[in-house]
Task: structure prediction
Amino acid sequence: MIVPADAQLAIVTAGARPATLFDVVGQSGARTIAVIGLVKNAGKTTVVNALMDNVALRFGLTSLGLDGERTDHLTGLDKPRIVPPRGTLIATTVGSLDRSHYTMEQLERLPFHTSLGNVVLGSAVGDGAVEISGPTTLSEVAATAARLHAHGAQVVLVDGAINRLGSASPRVSDAVIVATGGLVAETLDETVATTVATLEMLTLPEIDPQTRALVAPETLTRARAVAVDEQGRRTALDLDTVVGEGVRVAREVERLAAKVLFVGGALTQEFADDFLRTLPPRRNVTVVVRDATVLILSPATVARCRRRGIELRVLTPLRVLAVTTNPYRLPQPYNAKLFFGAVADAVGDRAPVFDVVHGLAAVPAGDTAGRPTTSPPMPRTV
Result:
């Protein structure tokens, strides 16, 4: 993919105001936002710092567990740290506070235990960087976010990663920012393709009302798998779990002539591989899961399902506010405009795309700005 760098940007017309990530977040109405990175060094921490510096809201911060090492194992360089402005509300562990040599005004000790000690909630003193870590279960992260809101946070940012997608679950967050970077894949083409495929997986469409009416009664009983045939007859499969049962479930779908399959819990790569291998090639079926965060499989597998006539749908869709780009890679970063332009062109109208360091923005038509624009670069560096 060869994209002239200068062709990616268009100066906004006189009098029009460029849309920025800060506009998007400030106007979103979202109260809890997961910021997830598709790879290490995707610029997730830079995005969090930029939001806190540029959006006139009181933020709260927490994380699903501890995301990543303090030093980049590839370069040996210190990784960016979160530097919260004074008054930011923080929920992190005692161990992270100690490792950060950070002092905050502690407001509450939460009843959540981790390998780094208890989770404590406090107010930033506005001096230095802090390591953010948090509880390890979704219910505890949701409860932590609720306590941050109770202490006055207008928006809570939950630090996450693609291998811990739970932070983006609707049970925790009501919006998501996806950070992609030059280290996602070996080549620019592969990086762009993986970014778009991941975005499509995260934004799987919600089931239509007719399908919801078919599966809703069974979801309330927490059945592991429910097959629905053309006549709307529901059959709960006798399974304690679908993990490792892809072959059996595919055979049941074929035997029952099911047109819809509801899967409770996680949908794994192993299940998908066995299910696709066993199901006859011309069998079309809609597979419904709770939300996209339960898909423990590759974006390429989602695309393979679609090609086979297997449509994946969700009971609760994720709300992706934006994609952010970071051109960093080894041995040399991509040209920032080239990388941004390639990602923005491929993402199209699926979501706004921003580079908060170089001040680049591409916003779908109908938003504040309909074409790629330039805005002043951020002072922070990746």
